Amino acid sequence: MTKIIIFTKTLLLYLLLIKKSGAVSCSYFSTVELKTARLLLNVKYSNKMTLPFILRKNHLTERDDDYSAQPLAFDTLDMDTLIQKSVKRHSSLNVADSTIAIRAFQEQVYEELLAGNNIITPMCNIRLSISGVFDGDNMEFNPEKHKVNLNFNAGIDFKGLPNEIKLKKMATADVLPELEYFEDSDSHTRNETITPGKAAIIKGARIKINQESAEEGIFFIAEDNNETKVETYLRNMPSELIFSTPETLAAGKYHVEVRSKLEGKTLRIGELEYALTVN
Question: Do residues 81 and 71 lie in contact, with contact meaning Cβ atoms separated by under 8 Å?
Fold first, then answer.
């Protein structure tokens, strides 16, 4: 019989506050630390953000009045970023220990799933299932016809989250790429310097571009309005662009634009508010 592993909040705070390698007991943690972990796990945000969305024509049907909603994500956060944000909120935590604890937690979840167990946590539940048709009760599992699936759904602490999100409908024309900052990898500066031929990063929202489109991309615009387009991209995501700055950029000041159709037909332009310099 499949066993269900229940990771309670106590186990989560225990993992988040690991401070020693090897065998660890709860005696290592002070009352203050345990209370801090509970606050971390049960934090309720009073400053709720508004989630903007737009309506797009549903091309999968023949109806002219069939539209679907598309949320406009502000950013995409990885685990390292989430850990850094959590540590800033709680002075008793540090990045190294928190990373080790969460890695240990993930490894344990992975091992339990390999053993055929289901997982229940306050954040999400994971259940194993098998899909595919079996021709009779004597048929064995065949990887070409059958598949093992991981099924995720919200845990008890996250089930009510959709009801707390505030929505704001936006007109498609109001949606533009947003550029937060430009980072030059060679000079290690933000919103200041461009080093031609070196890697750079643009962070923002809705900045993913179609690299095959001549109209879309990152453009450096000189003071004489001469435009130079980026040709080489290392990462192309809605919240982050990593690329090689054009080697042909001459000394001077430049404005940076990201031009994208945002999966639509109209070209939209977002501009960095800072002027950048090639020395």
Answer: no
Give DSSP secondary structure letters for 220-256: EEETT--EEE--EEEEEETTEEEEEPPTTPPSEEEEE
The span from the CA of 248 to the CA of 279, in Å, is 13
Cα 190 to Cα 184: distance, rounded to the nearest angstrom = 6
Q: SS3 for 4?
A: strand
Tell me the per-residue pLDDT of 101-136, one tens digit each, with 9 for 90 and over: 999 999 999 999 999 999 999 999 999 999 999 999
- By CB neighbour count within 10 A (0-12 exposed, 13-18 middle, 19+ buried), where does 162 fall? exposed
Give the contacts of 279 (CB within 8 A, at least 6 positions apart).
Answer: 193, 251
pTM over 0.70: no
Distance (Å, whole) CA 224 – CA 263: 31
Question: Which residue from 252, 273, 270 is spatially nearest to 181, judged by alpha carbons?
Answer: 273
Cα separation of 72 and 53, whole Å?
A: 5
